[in-house]
Amino acid sequence: MNRNLMLLSLSIVFGIMLFGCLQVGAKACKLDADCQGWQSCNLQNGQCVAKEGFCSADRECNGTNQICSPQTHACAFKAGFCSTDYECAGWQKCDVPTGRCITGSGYCGDDSGCEAWKACSPVTHTCIARAGLCVDEYDCAAWQNCNTTTHRCVPSSGFCDSDLACQRWETCNVQSHLCVVKEGFCNNDLHCDTFHKCNYVTHECDPKSEYCFDDTQCAGYQFCETGSHMCRAKSSYCNDARDCTNWQDCYDVTHTCITKQGYCRDGSECSGYQSCDLETHQCRQMVGYCGRNEDCNEPAEICDLSPGSPTLYRCIPRGIPCSSNTDCPGSECDLINHRCRG
After folding, report:
1. Choosing a second label site near 310 at 20 to 30 A (CA), which of 139, 244, 266, 322?
2. For 145-160, b where at least 16 C-beta lie within 10 A, e where not — what string?
3. Cα gap 95→103, rounded to integer Å
């Protein structure tokens, strides 16, 4: 036998032995323990088969409404089919004559089972209010109430959902849903600045009477100071004594500063025997002059107070000789004694 023939013979023998081994290994089990939990071992053919009450394929189940569950390996009804309520979802019941799961009382399968303003919840399978609609206040935002006639959420008293729910001088705040005053308008004086007050008819800020915004709002002797919005006296005029010096008063007829009683602007406002002290603006008696007898050397002299006398406001001797009153400055002539009365 040559070498090639010997190799062929050995290959055939080896193949036969291998086939025999494979045939022996084809037996999947010898004991139930060699199979899965839902199987038992058929000792006749060494194959794992489904235990009673379990299945390995749909054909092993009864009827066309069942399938073999690949998870439990038990026959189960196809989705939507049943023999009792337990094969249906919690919101369904089993219609035994048809073997189908149908919607239970108080539940819904889709929107068609609900009123027009409701939708079927895919979670609870109950009819709930559509977005923006409501059954009661719990379906609305905290600032809303439910109108149970229209089933719509509407603003509660004092709240708003648009400017239409507010006064014309207000706008609806989209965060708080409260009506707030528009820019440039007011609800009270706190919405105006210092120089304005709220007009409760127009809800606009009007100038306060004591303030001004142009010269036309002031008196003729005044101008409007833009910084303080106050009417100020024009130059040479006054509102009150504060616009004058300390030796003047404001005359409320002409609104000009006039000299106070006991003070002077210049010598013309003093008596003939006085001059005006421009530091104190008070009238001071001039040296060598008098305004009363006490200013002279009494009893020898008197003060000449006779208008037109050449010695007016001067101290003259008492009792000088006279023939008429003209000879007696500040006195009269005693025509019996021909002496000036002193």
Report:
1. 266
2. bbeeeebbbebeeebb
3. 10
Token pair for residue 247? 């030796």
DSSP designation for 36: -
Is the backbone peptide bond immediately before 97 cis, with ω within 30 degrees of 0?
A: no
The encoded tokens of residue 122 equal 């895919």
Range list of β-strands (E), 136-203:
144-147, 152-155, 170-172, 179-181, 196-199
Judge contact between 182 and 169, C-beta under 8 A: yes
Query: Residue ranges of the alpha helices (H) in the chain?
Result: 3-25
Q: Which of 62-71, 81-90, 270-279 has the highest mean pLDDT?
A: 270-279
Angle CA(147)–CA(153)–CA(159) in degrees, nearest 5?
Answer: 105
CA 43, distance to chain mean position in Å, is: 86
pLDDT at 13: 41
pLDDT given for residue 258 in this prediction: 94
Q: Are 117 and 98 in contact (CB under 8 A)?
A: no
List of long-range contacts for 38-45, beta carbons under 8 Å, 24+ apart: 38/72, 38/73, 38/74
DSSP 203-259: TEEEEPTT--SSGGGS-TTEEEETTTTEEEEPTT--SSGGGS-TTEEEETTTTEEEE
Q: How many CB atoms lie within 10 A of CB 85?
A: 15
